[in-house]
Amino acid sequence: MVLYKYDNMAILIKNVLLEGKKRNIYIKGNLIAAISEAGNNKEAEFVIDGKDKAAIPGLFNAHTHAAMTLLRGYADDMQLQEWLSTKIWPIEERMTEEDVYWGTKLACLEMIKSGTVFFNDMYWHWRGSVRAVMESGIRAALSAVFIDGFDEGRAKEQMKRNETLYEESKNLPERIIFMLGPHAIYTVSEESLCWVRDFAEEHDLLVHIHLSETEREVRECVEVYGMRPVEFLDSIGFLSPRTIAPHCVHLSRKEIEILKKRDVKIVHTPVSNMKLASGRMPYEELKWAGLRSNIALGTDGCASNNNLDMFEEMKIASLFQKAFSGDTTSMPAEEAFALATRNAAKMFRLNSGTIAKGKLADVVLLDLKQVKLVPNHNLISNIVYSANGSCVDTVICDGRILMEDRKVEGEEEIKKKAERVAYELVNRNSP
Amino acid sequence: MVLYKYDNMAILIKNVLLEGKKRNIYIKGNLIAAISEAGNNKEAEFVIDGKDKAAIPGLFNAHTHAAMTLLRGYADDMQLQEWLSTKIWPIEERMTEEDVYWGTKLACLEMIKSGTVFFNDMYWHWRGSVRAVMESGIRAALSAVFIDGFDEGRAKEQMKRNETLYEESKNLPERIIFMLGPHAIYTVSEESLCWVRDFAEEHDLLVHIHLSETEREVRECVEVYGMRPVEFLDSIGFLSPRTIAPHCVHLSRKEIEILKKRDVKIVHTPVSNMKLASGRMPYEELKWAGLRSNIALGTDGCASNNNLDMFEEMKIASLFQKAFSGDTTSMPAEEAFALATRNAAKMFRLNSGTIAKGKLADVVLLDLKQVKLVPNHNLISNIVYSANGSCVDTVICDGRILMEDRKVEGEEEIKKKAERVAYELVNRNSP
């Protein structure tokens, strides 16, 4: 089975349920070459039987800190500041590139096993993440955490480092996107934000920045800059259609208008926002403002979720919006599904997110015999409200089979090694 | 494998992780006969290798309408009243005992596959549910829906029917508990509620009643009775330690005091309350009032959830409370786990909910090699915040192995038949 073995092979998925009809899906190279009625079988080097399976586009996780799988369950149910300063930050400080490599390997494995074909990451030791993604076969947009702590020396270092990484990234396969990752307005100086703005524009790069996650962030921004976070970023010309902003929980009406005007992309992170009691992204309001297709969905890191299951994230996104708005029709299943597929693909400028001829071959097969998918009155409803990642049977990303019959190559070794790395990391003495 | 095959066999679970230590668990009949250090192996007729597994008590689903699995995904994202009157009620009206039997079979299968060993049900065609539970091997408290629509004739019918069913229930195995199921204060007359109160007291029966689920229920109660729902029920002496009340979303301080005074049991149903935008049960307030161990957790029916996965329910319960209270320390993992295990066992007067010598043998083994459970810094945290039902490997209920290595006897037939019944049901003409 699996990874790399079928590279460059033509794949035929035979007789699979696709949007309510039985279809054959032909994959050639990394593209969907044709979709035809079931029965008219062409030749293919490799055939997957689609009986009792449904084909859906692979899922996109639009905000992660992948290597934090190492800290899954390490510290929960704490006050936010205490959690960060006594648990998360000290450990991140002693993380090595090797730790990040194994944590990201574990994350990629978890994502593949739950039908995710892409993730948008911001983390330390960028090269560790790159190695893991190279090996896993998954797509990713990878940014190094850019934090200068308002220190000029650190700022210079970060700029130089990003220039170097950007050069390195030119040798990477297309499925890895280099992004800039200025952490947030409260950790990055205005000068550095301006540098990011210019460098991103010059090289047409996407920019990943945490935005308006907590009330404290808004309050401190008003204190320091005399403006709310979105207003501040707009005042320095930072916002553009290439800006990808996770959270966006605390937004004034004026800020929503700015986000629309600048065509900013937003990532909803419901589980993390609930677990950290940050508040709720105003989905309906953003929709009304015309930003509906600008919104994607992300899990955030495993320290604040604690998994990377995008099926769960879709369900909780919809529940969260319904519960807070008091409106049972808020974020219907179709919209939650769009958040995790086509909206995200558009956001990352990928020809993916739907299954159609000419699209990238990012295809997930669901096992319709899983009890959670029985009966199948409405597949999208079952996907969003009943399924979880364990309903995924097969994952094809960029034309490669990464999982078949729930088996991923090297899975046992990855789990064993990552677990060892995780225990060693939390027990390691500070440097 | 599986069901009934190992009846009355002594079972040894060897070398399993139990509360952080490697243990042997011996099961004899339907009880846990001994727990000893791993290594000191006694004899047993049947041995389960506990390597890479953790033993936890089986989960309790304290509020369901099990046969509604047939309507999973049939109608979502609608206004509550439209949903009930155009989708749910017309179909329930044409359900037969055979439909309920297959729907409950499917529900039992789903629950076993996700580590649930008990459910508290209220539904139509009680005998259909009983047959399904008899065959599945799971525990259940089963009540027939008691609705009189404030009609004297229907009330008499319902009383007679419950007397008959109660008599029938005396022949059932101990793992099936007969309960009374007055639907709610807005569907059952005061006279009938008084009859339920007396019949339950006379025969020491538990009583299952939806309570304070929606604002409308509260408003109408005040209009009709001049009191809020809990006050009204208390005014007729209805509330007792045997009252099991799902939802309890809209409670005044005075009502919380009454619930405490009467030692009423409460079932939190977070997913259903969020999906139907009903509001949030005030968990922290109930805890402060001394009701912490009186609260259990339920999924509600599959039409408003849309699955029966208690792992998911624990996570969402905790997230819901954190998000609404703004307090990241609200409902920590340990408490969510207690809601789904020992609190519920106490509520239903079952010697279960923990793993200890002399307790009922309701034991679930988790597969620690599932990627969601790696690394294992804190098992309870992983269970509540990361796992889902697919992490369950083995389910033992009442001393019987209902699932081993994720295989349940008769699974394929149940899914196939229930699916057929579901499609036929929604397409059937009204009677």
Summarize the structure.
Two copies of one chain form a homodimer. Helix content of chain A is 40%, strand content 21%.
Task: Describe this protein's structure.
Two copies of one chain form a homodimer. The first copy, chain A, folds into two domains: 11-57 and 360-408, Urease, subunit C, domain 1 (Roll), CATH 2.30.40.10; 59-347, TIM Barrel (Alpha-Beta Barrel). In chain A, helix 3 (126-136) links the parallel strand 7 and strand 8 (139-146). With 431 residues, chain A is α/β, with parallel strands linked by helices. Chain A starts with 10 loop residues before the first strand and ends with a helix. In chain A, helix 8 (253-261) packs across helix 10 (283-291) and helix 11 crosses helix 12 (333-340). Chain A has helices at residues 80-93, 97-113, 126-136, 152-169, 190-203, 215-225, 229-235, 253-261, 270-275, 283-291, 310-325, 333-340, 342-347, 379-386, 411-427, and strands at 11-18, 21-28, 31-37, 46-49, 53-57, 59-64, 116-123, 139-146, 176-182, 207-208, 243-246, 265-268, 295-297, 363-367, 392-397, 400-403. Helix content of chain A is 40%, strand content 21%. The model of chain A is unreliable at 1-5 (pLDDT under 50). Chain A is globular. Chain A has a four-stranded mixed sheet, with no helix packed on it. In chain A, strands 5-14-15-16 form a four-stranded antiparallel sheet, with no helix packed on it. Chain A has a four-stranded parallel sheet with strand order 6-7-8-9.
